[in-house]
Amino acid sequence: MDSDTDAGKAAFLDDLRSHVGSTGTPRTARDPVNLSTIRNWCDAMGEANPYFTDEQAAAASPHGGLVAPAATLNVWTMAGLHLGGPAPADPNEPRTAVYQKLNAGGFSSVVATNTELHFDRCLRPGDLLSDVTLLDDVSEEKATRLGTGHFVTTKVEFTDQHDEQVGSMLFRILKYTKPAPEPAAEEAPAAEPAPPKSKPRPRFNQDQAWFWEGLRNHELRIQRFTDDGSLVHPPANANPATQHMEYDWVVASGRGTLYSYTVAHHPQVPSFDYPHLVGIVELEEGVRIVSPIVGCTKEQLEIGMPLEVSFVDTHDDVTLHQFQPATPARAEVSLQSGDVGEGDRLPLCALPITPLLIVSTAIATRDFQEVHHDKAEAERRGSKDIFMNILTTNGIVARWIGDWAGNDVVFRNIKIGLGVPNYPGDIMTMSGSVAAVADDGTVTVGFIGRNSLGAHVTGTADVALPGSPAHAAMIEGGAR
Amino acid sequence: MSFASQTAIVGIGATEFSKNSGRTPMQLATEASIAACVDAGISPADIDGIVTFSAEKNTEIEVARNLGVRELTHFSQIPHGGGAACGVIGQAAMALYSGAAKYVLVYRAFNERSWHRFGQGVQDTHQSPEAFDVSFSWTSPFGLLTPAQWVAMFATRYMHEYGATTEDFGRVAVADRKHAATNPAAFFYEKPITLEDHQNSRWISEPLRLLDCCQESDGGQAFILTTMDRAADTAQPAAVIAAAAQGVSADQHVMRSYYRESISGLPEMGVVARQLWDASGLSPADIQTAVIYDHFTPLVLPQLEEFGFCARGEAKDFIAEGNIELGGGLPINTNGGQLGEAYIHGMNGVAEAVRQVRGTSVNPVDNVENVLVTAGSGVPTSGLILSKA
Predict the structure, then answer these.
(1) Which of A27, A142, A254, B371 has the greatest number of CB atoms lying within 10 Å of its CB?
(2) CATH topology of A1-30+73-179 equal to that of A333-480?
(3) Which entry of B97, B107, B162, B343 is annotated as an active-site residue?
(4) Is it true that domain A1-30+73-179 has CATH number 3.20.20.70?
(5) Cross-chain CB nearest to A199 (options B128, B133, B141)
(6) Is B343 a catalytic residue?
(7) Does domain A333-480 have CATH number 1.10.287.4070?
(8) B369-388 tens-digit pLDDT
């Protein structure tokens, strides 16, 4: 078959689409929905809703008992880890034949691009889930940022032990051809790459050494004169008010607000990424300090915004402070239907992406693909490092919305598209706003999670707040 | 201030202003100094005092040697870059009034464009453990490296507190470039800009755009000062130093005074303003035109406020009403300023003030009696008022 001609492409697509509508073998979870797994999931995600883990609080909640986080919908039927032997494979898996044909057609790379989780009711401990996968669609050939390929969409339906549907998931992947690397210029002498220029080093003497030692210990220290306890930054040799010369320091809480800022564009120094955001941060202790502002875009900078410190090693022997949007406090009182309107902004939430977060959330979501656990294996598969799995992205989105809306919020759906990966060492910052409020009280939140590479996730979530018909329906659906 | 109106600038001299002088800074210093002597109608050998910037690399002894100076009885230097521009005139005036010297040369010359680009900031410099170098450690490692970036912090806060916009900064650039357009000595002669041009120019360090920033220049500027009695025998009408003053305020840093209770004003310029009004007995209403230091447009606004030409936060309205352009209530920088004529660390602005007093500016303001000049903003600074004899 000549896949380069239109006729060839059409025939190829027809062949792929011949599998659309086929379904896999129904699969039942190895374990029912259970508190232990929920607790691990909440711990890893930073999910603090007590209705998931605290029986007393849950009993007094609209649910009348413990429920599982909505974003765990597709956790329970995951295959699990099978280090002792091959994972059980479904001979009827409807994607297998399509993938084989795509591989043969040169579309051998794969990336997950979208999930749409729909929730019919809240899951409860004891529910035993089954799922069945349906091949829903194979797209025509599309040119994408990654390369040319076909989107393959499956639909998974989840049912409980009474054979009643509890939710569904649309899952879309892209099978694509990586573009050929740019041919190297002929006969070009192999230029020695210039060593990356390191950031300007702090210069200090014995009068300020304690400050920089503090940063090495991940402490932001503020000079305190011992006579009147006054705090001074930058450090001085004598208390400006009294000329007293003895001082120690306090360790700053690391919380502050943005007092002023600039977005530097030119000139560009090789060791910084431009545009480079620098702020004057007013620490809650009262002094100000200059700091890079990370984990947000220049459009998100706002004088007065709450910030918190983190630390970054810039040289073998130098650690610097940086500030990022502060983690918003979780709502103590749940938002009620009517409290929110279209355009309401959700607070920024900057999430440091660490290897621990990626690995622990992958395990908590029962996803044991090596690319989320094993750096060497991730590199062998063309990734620069391990990266966050898609189930965790859903969990993080749900946690952030829950922190904003409070314990009583219930999710109707979460629809996300994935962009750049979340690699260790980066910061992903969630931002979003209320896109719509429907007549039944369904609140649609539009969101984007950005890291230093760009948009990791964009999407929407429909949630229901107490006091709305939508909320009542979800609670009723989950009642026994 | 006992030396008020006791001394005068009697000679001005400059090289051309360019992006590449093709000559050494020492050559520029020598040429400008000789030109100032010719303008004053004195022999270089009469010079017995020299005051310059501590940033000046052409030492006074080499300049003195080139000029055939026989004896120097006063020589001093003022620190902190452009903040010295009026301080050097004030130091010369004090030396003359005290009798320490009879004819004082003041000069500044550099190839700040073709040799060392000042706007590149402090990326690789300041690596000694001395206090001055250490002071950069509170900003440089974090990527705050250039004068434009330092100034941007003040500009953002000023906008936040007073509702100013980048258009308000742009109007300063438009006025300067309008004045430069009719000044043949200006870098941007016959090149006016519109507010739209300003808004379309690229970001340098937000909220500063390219057209908010002066361009580094090559050039030299010199002055001859003497006492009022000797001034009567020189070739030009005297530009009388009605007052000159320097200023530093509490918790002062060099362009990075971010730690004061408020950073939307320039308290060190307030220190200068109070002294100038007190010493001269003048008030804002007595000033017909001013040279307001304009290395970056945003800091022009708080200077107008510190001197009382308008209330705090209202400079944007004062400017929008057209006051700072020729024909307005207080035309500023009639040579084009440092944004339009050249960036000679404020010294070319002092020369324009002398020309306004003499009536020889290419953009003369009517009925000039007193001209205000300010020096570098955001740094330890200075100011002066020149008046007709």
Answers:
(1) B371
(2) yes
(3) B343
(4) no
(5) B141
(6) yes
(7) no
(8) 999 999 999 999 999 999 99
According to CATH, the superfamily of the domain at B7-115+217-388 is Thiolase/Chalcone synthase (3.40.47.10)
Which of A260, A273, A288, A324 would you mutate first to test chain B, the one with the most B CBs within 10 A? A260
The domain limits of chain B are: 7-115+217-388
For residue B158, the distance in angstroms to the closest alpha carbon of chain A comes to: 9
The complex's ipTM works out to: 0.96
B103 is catalytic: no
What's the whole-number mean pLDDT along residues B62-81? 96
When pLDDT is averaged across residues B57-81 and rounded to a whole number, the result is 96
The structure tokens listed for B347 are 């010294």
Task: Compare CB distances from A320 to B121, B141, B145 and report the shortest one's residue.
Answer: B141
Angle at B140 between CA B135 and CA B145, to 5 degrees: 115
**Which single residue is written with the structure tokens 């062998």?**
A380
Give me the residues of chain A with pLDDT under 70, please. 1-3, 180-197, 479-480
Quick one: pLDDT at residue A458?
98
Helix (H) or strand (E) holding B195: helix B195-200
Using CA atoms, how far residue B218 sits from A281, A353, B51, B204, in Å, is 37, 49, 20, 22
pLDDT at A189: 47
B81: left (phi over 0), alpha (psi -120 to 50) or beta: left
Q: List the helix and strand counts (H, then E) for chain B.
A: 13, 11
Q: Cβ distance B12 to B223 under 8 Å?
A: yes
Report how far residue B175's alpha carbon sits from residue B160's, in angstroms, rounded to the nearest whole number.
24
In the CATH scheme, what is the code of domain A209-325?
Answer: 2.40.50.840
As a whole number, mean pLDDT of residues B176-188 equals 97
Reported as a single tens digit per residue, the pLDDT across A49-63 is 999 999 999 999 999
Say if residue B252's pLDDT is above 60.
Answer: yes
Every domain of chain A and the residues it spans: 1-30+73-179, 209-325, 333-480
Q: With an 8 Å Cβ cutoff, is B142 touching chain A?
A: yes
Nearest Cβ partner for A278 among B144, B157, B263: B144
Place of tokens 């408020």: B262
pLDDT of residue A188: 45
SS3 letters for A387-403? CCCHHHHHHHHHHHHHH
Contact criterion met (CB < 8 Å) for B119 and A259:
no
Quote the pLDDT of residue A80.
87
